From TrEMBL:
Name the record gives this protein: XRE family transcriptional regulator
UniProt record similarity statement: Belongs to the short-chain fatty acyl-CoA assimilation regulator (ScfR) family.
Annotated CDD domains: HTH_XRE
UniProt cross-references to PANTHER family, sorted A to Z: ANTITOXIN HIGA1, BLL7220 PROTEIN
Region (Disordered): 383-402
Domain HTH cro/C1-type: 13-67
InterPro entries: Cro/C1-type_HTH, IrrE_HExxH, Lambda_DNA-bd_dom_sf, Rad_response_metalloprotease
Length: 402
């Protein structure tokens, strides 16, 4: 680099362009420089001087110092849920958000130990190696090592995080992509990012199980560029999701004949899985044949339409807790001041709040903040649930030794 801040990391500039969905020309206009200068910064030929770096950081809403931090590369190429119909720029934006989730997690891991990773190991290097029997066995093993039994999973997000997977759920503005996942070398654990745009709890649970399938089955398989190969991997992740959410033995015991849409609606609420996914699982298990499957789908479409089902609003989407409670723990314990979180990570407070699932303006001190110890004792006094939010146990954290 010929001039400017010598520690400037060009990869950060590429990352911010993707995350903010900006072109070089748009960024140049916002900063008040030429597009050629942005191109030189991005290629590493030239670096911004301090005043230009300040303007750059201000318009993209990160700290100037953030541009001097080396990037942490994602170890595996992210696998997208339904990526075939999405624009390249949309996928790049979500990849950047996934990288930021990695940055947030890595920064927080300096202070806490996250739950140990607990996933089945598979060594497939080609989707052609994976049979339906392999998928059923992998899903069953995952349930076994997570102690989930054969019944409906009360909270899949909690189960996933307790297994050491980093989970982010946020509004992305990109409806065609429901989720993506990747293995992080820096964290030695995987990350899943789910879209919260549709707000359908049943779809979200299936999307999460689908990404879990990719992580278990396709860890050593590169992202497919050919449509047929991509579709094959998507079908395998779909099969895993069905097998994981609706285990053969437990689910089959709940089936009563003749099968009707009304009976499937009852199963939907019990198992937390859409009627459409239940129909596919019934067919996969051989409980209905192809003709019966098509008949049920036609009746479903005629009765309810293709995009929604009765009872979709009966369940709230499951929300991640791990990153949110990590930040709350660091703040409530005095390990990190509230206004120091964004400074430590380098991203804007708003981005951190979205990635960690924190309330809006929490890091500004504008959101309501409870001391968890006082909250628990107060609730106990009145005989209430003493777990934060009253919805689950506290995730185990252990402070790292110095």
């Amino acid at each position: 680099m010929s001039r400017g801040i010598t520690e400037f990391q060009p990869e950060r500039l590429s990352q911010i362009l993707s995350a903010r969905r900006l072109s070089q020309v748009q960024l140049a206009t916002m900063v008040g420089i030429s597009p050629a200068t942005v191109s030189k910064w991005r290629s590493g030929v030239q670096a911004p001087e301090s005043d230009a770096l300040e303007r750059l950081a201000q318009v993209v809403n990160v700290s100037p110092e953030w541009f001097t931090r080396p990037t942490l590369s994602i170890g595996s190429t992210p696998l997208f849920r339904s990526n075939a119909s999405a624009h390249v720029a949309a996928r790049q934006m979500l990849e950047a958000r996934l990288e930021w989730a990695q940055d947030v997690t890595y920064s927080l891991s300096e202070f806490v130990d996250f739950p140990a990773l607990n996933l089945p190991e598979r060594a497939f290097v080609d989707p052609e190696q994976i049979s339906n029997a392999d998928i059923e066995l992998a899903a069953a093993e995952c349930r076994k090592i997570w102690n989930l039994g054969r019944q409906a999973i009360p909270d899949l997000a909690l189960a996933v995080e307790n297994a050491g997977i980093i989970l982010v759920r946020e509004e992305t503005g990109i409806a065609p992509i429901e989720g993506l996942s990747a293995w992080s070398t820096a964290l030695s654990r995987p990350i899943i990012l789910l879209s919260a745009d549709k707000g359908n709890a049943f779809r979200s649970r299936f999307d999460l199980a689908h990404e879990l399938g990719h992580l278990v089955l396709h860890k050593h398989i590169p992202r497919a560029t050919e449509r047929d190969r991509h579709n094959q991997m998507e079908k395998q992740a779909h099969r895993f999701a069905g097998a994981f959410l609706l285990p053969a033995e437990g689910f089959a015991n709940d089936i009563r004949t003749p099968i009707s849409l009304d009976s499937l609606l009852l199963l939907k609420q019990r198992w937390g899985v859409s009627v459409a996914a239940i129909i596919m699982r019934l067919n996969a298990l051989g409980l209905i044949d192809e003709e019966a499957k098509l008949s049920l789908f036609k009746r479903r479409s005629a009765r309810w339409g293709a995009k929604s089902e009765p009872g979709d609003e009966a369940r709230n989407p499951e929300c991640p807790r791990l990153l949110r409670r990590t930040v709350e723990l660091l703040v409530s314990s005095g390990t990190m001041p509230l206004n120091g979180v964004a400074r430590h990570i380098g991203l804007s407070a708003r981005d951190i709040e979205m990635i960690a699932g924190l309330p809006a303006y929490y890091l500004d001190g504008a959101a309501e903040v409870h001391d968890l110890a006082k909250l628990r004792s107060t609730l106990a006094k009145f005989g209430g649930d003493t777990s934060p939010s009253g919805d689950s146990k506290i995730l185990p954290f252990g402070r790292r030794g110095n």
